[in-house]
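dumping the sequnces here before i forget
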Amino acid sequence: MKKNDEFYVPYIEGSLGAKTKQTLKRFTMGSFVLIIIAALLFSFSQKPFKNSSFELLNETKITGTFHESPYPMLRVEVAENTFKNILLLGFGKSSADPFLEKLQNDVKNLNGKTISIEGNLIYYNGKTLIQITDDEKVTLVNAKNTKIPEKETIGEMTLKGEIIDPKCYFGVMKPGKGKIHRSCAVRCISGGIPPVLATTDNNNMSTYYLLTDLKGNPIHKAILPFIGKPSEISGIVQKVDDWYLLKINPKNISIKSNTSLFY
Amino acid sequence: MGLDYQLVLWNKHKKTYDKIIAFSMLLYIILFAVITLVFNAETSIETLVIRAFGSLAIIMLHIILVIGPLARLNSNFLPILYNRRHLGVSMFIAALIHGGFSIFQFHALGDVNPIYSVFTSNMDYASLTNFPFQVLGFLALLILFVMASTSHDFFLGNLSAKVWKRLHMLVYVAYALIIAHVFLGAFQQETSVFTIGILVIGFVIVVSLHLITAFKEGKIDAAKAEEKEGWLKVCDISEIEEDRAKIFTVENERVAIFKYDGKLSAIHNVCKHQGGPLGEGKIIDGCITCPWHGYQYLPGNGQSPPPFTEKVATYALKLQGEMIYINPDAFNEGTEVEPCNY
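..and the predicted 3d for all of it:
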């Protein structure tokens, strides 16, 4: 060990010698330099975040036709004969069902009814979702049945992408995909958030497919092991206004290596 | 040294040390936040907090881990070692903010308990690239919590220096878990050669400094002593500086042989406070003074001067001409041994 005549004793005034002080100054300056370099490297090296939005502190009231295809949505006419379907979600990592239950019980069948919902909007890349946090903010506007959108079958397809939870992906979290987010997506989908297959083509254009089982029913627990990984899925594609549905058998999902365009 | 346990025994140096820690942490967080908000403005506040505090904690851990070997190689670094526990607790706070926000963000408000979710939301334990990296971070945070919550002389006194030291050696397990947590987690998605590079360089520096220190100290233990009628040959008197010591290994135990006021005394090298190397200390006011925190022992009996109660083992020495010999059989801790006059 390199010794010197100086010997620092914490409780002895003046025991901090000149050489030791110089070493401490150098170490402190070195630490400052390291802190600055590390802050620059870690902050600048982050991949760009998406311009997705989650209006946590702002509530918006939307009115439209309720339907379950098979996940709860609100069909809103945004221009003449042009409809946008807003996916309904619950608070946290849960489905909208508990917040719709009260009105469901009052009306018996909510499908086709015009309802109004006040909640937090989530939106990105042409898709809009709304988080409901209070069942008192779900109100019936018109009990008369309105036409609900029909499903148009497009055909069988094999698609590559990643199963994501749309709540985080479209705005609540950044990034809302990939390995870092996988656990959260599992919790969200396990809690009732509809699963979505997000695909990206060679031109970097994304298409989104709500996943259902082969009968068109909601699917959650059966696909948990495949969430957040580059996957290849075969199924029957259907179109409902501005959303695609993909009817799948979870046994037909194959996990690909981490070379997906999506990563 | 202190008789009563207080939350912190403040002094001028500790305050300066803590101000530097607070300033550095603040500097890092502000720089990270400002750069991110200016150049990558679409971030979310939660992500910013998780990333800023996570990266800060790992940088601080590297600084903490190099202090030990640096102080072993050069005594000028000892004042940094002296207050290292404040740096450790500060690093734990940064790690806790990172871990707490992450557990809430990724696992809370779901259909199961968030802690249960940490262990079960990703079950790919058999895969390397898909491994549930959050479990590694959680286990590291638990270790850091145990260490931070026992970073006080109360626990040091009650657990014994040996147990406390072993507990705090778990920092190396935490370091390994954190490195694996980052490489199997963030670096699987945020693949930047710069951030991966800085952690690789950090790892190499930490490992190298520890290996260099171990190699140098290993030489002391490996030295073969010449035996003469049950006594071991140590060295010539002139090889020991006045008021300083030579460290000599007998029966796998390090002994500090001090030279002072025309006398020689030998005591066990390990300080009862935190295991500091007494042989790297100095005689001050007639007492052997530990280089780490200034704990003191009387050279003749290995006892801390009253009212303190620490005791270390003592050894018998003899002189043949200028040559020092030691009896390898230790006396009980605190046993009075007549110093060897020269």
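Residues 10 and 27 of chain A are 18 Å apart (CA to CA).
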